[in-house]
Design brief:
Layout (H helix, E strand, L loop, with lengths): L1 H28 L32 E6 L10 H5 L5 E5 L7 E5 L7 E5 L2 E2 L18 E8 L13 E7 L7 E9 L3 E10 L4 E12 L4 E4 L11 E4 L5 E15 L2 E15 L12 E18 L2 E18 L14 E19 L3 E18 L10 E16 L4 E16 L3 E3 L10 E3 L3 E19 L2 E12 L3 H5 L5 E2 L7 E15 L5 E16 L2 E5 L5 E5 L3 E14 L3 E14 L17 E11 L2 E11 L22 E12 L2 E8 L18 E9 L1
Parallel strand pairs: 4-7, 25-29
Antiparallel strand pairs: 1-6, 2-3, 4-5, 6-7, 8-9, 8-36, 9-10, 10-13, 11-12, 13-14, 14-15, 15-16, 16-17, 17-18, 18-19, 19-20, 20-23, 21-22, 23-24, 24-26, 26-27, 27-30, 28-29, 30-31, 31-32, 32-33, 33-34, 34-35, 35-36
Amino acid sequence: MARIFRERLLWMLAIQVLLSTVDGFAEEKQKVHVMEDVVVTASKIDDTYQTGDVNLEETPSFYSRIKRENFEGKMEDIAEVLEKEVGIQVRKTGGLGSFSAISLRGSTSEQVMVYMDGVLLNDSNYGGIDLSNISLSDVESIEVFRGVTPLNFGKASIGGVVNITTLRSKETLNGSIRAGVGSFGTRQVSAFLNQKPGKWDYVLSGDYLGSKNNYWILNPKQTPYNPYDDRWEQMNNNGFEQTAFLAKFGYDFSKDSRFDFSNQFFNKDQALPGWQNLESTATTFNTRRNVTILKFTVDNVGSCNMNTYFDYSWKEEEYDDRSSTLGLSIGEGGRQHNLYVTNSLGGHYFLEHISDWNILSVMADARFETYSPEDLLYPDRTQRNSTRGTFTVGLQDTLLLLDQRLSFIPGVRYYHIRNELLSPTRSISNDPGNPLETELLPAKTEHKNYVSPQMGVKYRVADGVVLKSNIARYTREPAFYELFGDRGWMTGNPGLNAEEGVNFDVGFSINRQVNNAFFQRVSWDAAYFRSHVEDMITVVFNAQGFGRYANIGKAEIKGIETDFRIDFLTFFRLIANATWQDPINMSDTVDQKGKILPGRYTEAYFGRIEARAAGVKLYLEYVKEIGMKYAASNLTAPGDQLWTGSRDKKETNIGVSWLWEPFLVTFEAKNIRNSRYQSFWGYPQPGRSFYLTGKYNF
C-alpha cells in the first residue's frame, strides 16, 4: 500500500506541474509570434563534443551526465561516483578498489554495457565489468543511459549503457599534480598534462592508487548465537595497488577533419580476503589491460558527419590460490593458479545525415575476440580456448515534427554472432569438497542472428519541459565465464541460453532557469520503467554457499525513478533522487516464483546539500539502499549470520574543499555514523573513514 501511495503521489505531482506548464504555454500561444526559419544542426553539448558522441539534446533516452567537476579532487572511485545517480546501484566486496558490480534499473552487471571512448569494455570472457578496474583520474565525463540505448553504441543490452569519456585536449598548456592520503593506509598520486600549440595536441595522464584496506570488523567466528567468542580484528589480505597511464595525440587536418590516437594502460594487484578472515590467506587476483584506439572524424561532407575508429584491447587476469584458502579451491588438493588472456580487435563506423526535418544515423560495428585460459599448475590439462566474432549494423532516424517540438526516433540493430568453443570443459562433481572434477565437452561452432528494434518519442511541451517514452528489445549472449567459470565461489553452466528482454519507460524532464532572488534553476526528472526478461541468467547458491549460473526463466522488473535538483539563494544547491523497484522472479519454479531477484535493492535514496562561496564548498550527503536479498529463495543465506552488520546501506558523508588558485584542498569524512553493512554476504564494508587530498593546477 505504501508503494502504491508513493507512485500515485509522484504522478499526481508530475501531472500538476505539467498542467500548469501547459497552461502557461497556452497563454503564450495566444500572442502572435513571427518565427524565423529554423535550421537543424547537431548542436554541441560542450566544447569537447565530437561526432559519434550522443547528442543529449536530441536523444529520448533517460540519462545522467556526470562532469569531472563533480568528483575533481576527491578520493573516490567510479563506483562511488555512479552509486549517487538515480536508477543505479553498486555492490562492493569491500572498501576502495574492491570488486564493484553495477546494476541499472534492477539489471545484473552483465546486462550493463560499459564503453570507454567508444570501445566496449565488456568482453566475451566475463561479461560484466568490475568498475574498480577503471581509473577515475583519466575520466573527463560519464554518461549513463538507463534502459533504451542510443544507436551510437555498437552493442546494447537489457540494463543500459555507461559511457566513459577520457580526458580530451583543450586549448593552451595546462596540467595538474595531485596527492592524497586517507584511512586504512590509502594513498594516491596523479599527474596530468595537456597542450594544443596548433594543429597538434596531446594529453598525458598518470595515476597511482593503493590501500591496505585493513579496516576493523567484528568477526563472530560462525557462531552468531555465542557472543563470547566474537572479536574485533582487522581485515587480512585485503589490500590493492593500481597504476594507470593515458596518452592521447591528435591532429587537425582542417576545421572539419581530425585524427586521434590514444593508448591506455591499467595494472592492478588485488589481494582477496579469505572466508572467516583467515590470517594465512595469500590469494590474489591481478589484472593488466591495454586499450589502443585510432580514430578519424570528418564533418560537413555535404550534410553528413562521419566517425571511424579501430581498436585493439588486451587483458590478462591471473588468479592465484596456491594456498588453497578461498572458494572452490578450499580443501586438500584444491589449489588453483590460472591465467586468462582476452584479445579483442574491433572497428566502428558512424554516419549522420542532417536535414531540416530529420537526422538519419547509420552504424556498423565489428569485433573479434579470443579467450585463452591456461592452468599454470597443471599445464597438461586441456585448454579451453574460445573465440567470439560479432558483427552489428544499425539504422536510426530522428523525425522532427511540429516545428521540432515532437520527435519520433525509430531504430533497429542487427547482430550476427559466431561462437567457436574449441575445447570447453565443465564441472561434473556435486561434492563441494572436490568441485574441480571436470569432463571434456565436444568442440562446436555456433552462428546466431538477432534483431533488436527500438522506438523513442520526445515531445517538448514548453521551454525546458519534455515528455519522453521508449521501448526496445534486446538480447545478451552468456559470457564464457558464465558458461565455464571455475574460480572463487562460482562454477559455470555450459547449458545456458541467451537472455532476451523488452524495455519500456515513460516520463518527463523539466529543466528551467528561474531568475529571482530565491531560485536560480530547477530540474526534475521522473520515469516509470518496466523490463521483461526471458531466460534471465542469475547466480543460484547451494547450501554450502557455492554459486552456479542458471537460467531462472522469466523475470519482470518495474519501478519509478525520480531526480530533483535546485539551485537557490545564490550559494546553495539541493540534489535528491529516489528509486523504487520490484525485481520479481516470474519463473515456474515453485520455491522461487514471485520472489525478489537476488542482489538488487528494492529502494534507493540519495540526498545532498551543498553551499559554495569564495572558493569554499561544503557538502553533506546521505545514501540509503534497502530491501536486498542474497539468495534466489529469499531465505536466510549462509553468509547472513557470518558477520555482524546489515544488508541495508545507510551512509552519511561530509566534506569541504577550498579552491585558492592554483591550489585545491579537499577533506572528506565518509560513513561518519560508522554504519556497518555488506553488499555481498561474508564481505563487510568499512566503517568511518577520512581522506585529505591536495591538487596544484598550472
